[in-house]
Specification:
212 residues, alpha/beta, Rossmann fold, 8-stranded mixed sheet, 8 helices, binds S-adenosylmethionine, Ribosomal RNA small subunit methyltransferase G, rRNA processing, S-adenosyl-L-methionine, cytoplasm
Length: 212
């Protein structure tokens, strides 16, 4: 059942990619490894009690839509500020009859106004530097919630110390994976310790222009 849905999603992605630039990765086997398997690395890090999950800058649905298919008992909000990408996500959600996924084409800095401290888990893959995505994501988390950004290595961790402090969060663990038994991948497990000041995230564009 899940496999059928993942296959259909792969098919819809490849079809749409012929007419619009959803992903620069075009070969089927590469899409399976670099998008689908890479997203699945997160699955074992999700806990039974994680019910509400947000994926900011999801693009064509990675990692959020893959995880939503694998976890029909959890609610996912997939966010991307590019409307045509969200239109594609909505087509897939309708086609696969997914009941646990909602979408938004707002920027994170706008969407926060109605979604502050509502999520158990936040996700981001390939969206921006760790310092920047911390400011986008931590305000959406409940106290005790976890942000699980995917990165290729730990090079952005040191310069993110100030952002972690300002956002009352700490790194709990760095999880190391081998994608397809070859490429290194990491997931940084970040826990929110206390409420986030209402001044974060700052206005649209500022987190990226002038990171914490
Ligand atoms: C490089 S793509 C990565 C897409 C997907 N996560 C993946 O790994 O294939 C980054 C996406 O983040 C979106 N994005 C960047 N900043 C954003 C923000 N502040 N709010 C919402 N979406 C944002 C962009 O529109 C873009 O589609």
């Amino acid at each position: 059942m899940e496999n059928e849905k993942l296959n259909r999603y792969l098919y819809l992605l490849m079809e749409k990619n012929k007419v619009m630039n959803l992903t620069a990765i075009r070969e089927k086997d590469d899409i399976i490894v670099k998008h689908f398997m890479d997203s699945m690395l997160l699955n074992d890090l999700l806990k039974k009690e994680d019910k509400n999950i947000i994926d900011i800058g999801t693009g064509a649905g990675f990692p959020g839509l893959v995880l939503a298919i694998l976890n029909p008992d959890k609610n996912f909000l997939l966010v991307d500020s590019v409307k045509k990408k969200v239109d594609f996500l909505n087509e897939v959600i309708l086609d696969l009859n997914l009941k646990n996924v909602k979408t938004s084409d707002k920027r994170a800095e706008e969407l926060i106004k109605t979604n502050r401290e509502k999520f158990d888990v936040a996700l981001a893959r390939g969206v921006a530097n760790l310092r920047v995505i911390l400011e986008y994501e931590i305000p959406f988390l409940k106290v005790g919630g976890r942000f699980l950004p995917q990165k290729l290595n730990t090079s952005e961790v040191e310069e993110s110390r100030n952002a972690l402090k300002m956002l009352n969060s700490h790194i709990e663990k760095i999880h190391e994976f081998k994608l397809n038994n070859t490429e290194d991948r990491i997931v940084i497990e970040i826990v929110k310790d206390k409420k986030t000041s209402e001044k974060y995230p700052r206005k649209t564009g500022i987190p990226k222009k002038n990171p914490l």
